[in-house]
Amino acid sequence: MLKDRGKQIIKQIVSPLADKVGVYDEKVQRLMGEPNRLLVLMYHRVIDDLASDPFALGMCVRQKYFEEQLAWLAAHTHVLPLTQAVEHLLNNEPLPPNAVAITFDDGLLDNLSNAAPLLERYRLPATFYVITGGLETGHPMWWDRAIAILACTQAHSVDPRSIGLPELPHPLPLGRNVRADSCKVILNALWERNPGAIEQCLEQMEEMLEPGPIPPALQARRMNTQQVQELARRGFQIGAHTTRHIDPKLLNREQLMADLGASRQQLQELTQQPVDSFAYPGGRSSVWMPDLLAALGFHHAVDTRRGINQAPASRYAIARVGMPDTPVGDFKRAIRNLQIIDATP
Ligand SMILES: [Zn+2]
């Protein structure tokens, strides 16, 4: 807890102060200024307040910081449409200095309600990777269901054997100070399971942990089909992110091919636009992935390796940087020593 507090003080106070006196600018300029580099930013959710992010898992940025980040990007970088920027990178054609592309994963409703209006205000293009399974019902994604149950339960611990996760240490404590850690342990265990088993574990969690009604801030609502269409109509790029967001290693080649094809086709029919960009679910891949993406005609794929891309880039392994829920000064601190990633072995 103390360590976390110390980190928060650095992120919220020290690094913005250091940035004000120009500590990071030279390094950031040296990193981003080269015409053969592209920084791809990764967001998941843009939230109204911290009630929607009970365990600080790094997937939420508050609206006030999101706007600050966009204002800085608009003033100091060249934000490009992702496919166009990657095409330049792949062909080793010069990009404008400080080239950036903005992406969002998963297709949460706050992308449309909170992020899109601010992107439009600053006239910035962006790519939204939408999970297609359950788009019609807007059923929350499996990890958001687990987070909501764990955030709302009154239980002080849980026996993992009673929720279908017998490999975890028991009992798993759910006290206030350790609940976020236990949440991460449970999510990692769920990542090892197929959709049927995940559903079963979640049902058992609901039964054992009795979360009661989930408050609106924790409902993690997803965009429905009309809302994805609206985002596309407003000029944003829609990318594929699989149908169920499970580890591709759990699927054989044929299942993976079918999943990628189905998610792409559904999004193309919905948006009436080509869907040529793909994001690996949770950054996870499998040996067949690049071949299948090429066979299906995807232009490129983004993953979650942290770094700045440099030509010659690897088409199906474009690196990204997860955006922090902090002021711009802290973002500069976090990227100033980024790894440079290219396709040379
Ligand atoms: Zn995702």
From TrEMBL:
<protein>
    <recommendedName>
        <fullName>NodB homology domain-containing protein</fullName>
    </recommendedName>
</protein>
<dbReference type="InterPro" id="IPR051398">
    <property type="entry name" value="Polysacch_Deacetylase"/>
</dbReference>
<keyword id="KW-0732">Signal</keyword>
<dbReference type="GO" id="GO:0005975">
    <property type="term" value="P:carbohydrate metabolic process"/>
</dbReference>
<dbReference type="InterPro" id="IPR011330">
    <property type="entry name" value="Glyco_hydro/deAcase_b/a-brl"/>
</dbReference>
<feature type="domain" description="NodB homology">
    <location>
        <begin position="98"/>
        <end position="345"/>
    </location>
</feature>
<dbReference type="GO" id="GO:0016810">
    <property type="term" value="F:hydrolase activity, acting on carbon-nitrogen (but not peptide) bonds"/>
</dbReference>
<dbReference type="InterPro" id="IPR002509">
    <property type="entry name" value="NODB_dom"/>
</dbReference>
<dbReference type="Pfam" id="PF01522">
    <property type="entry name" value="Polysacc_deac_1"/>
</dbReference>
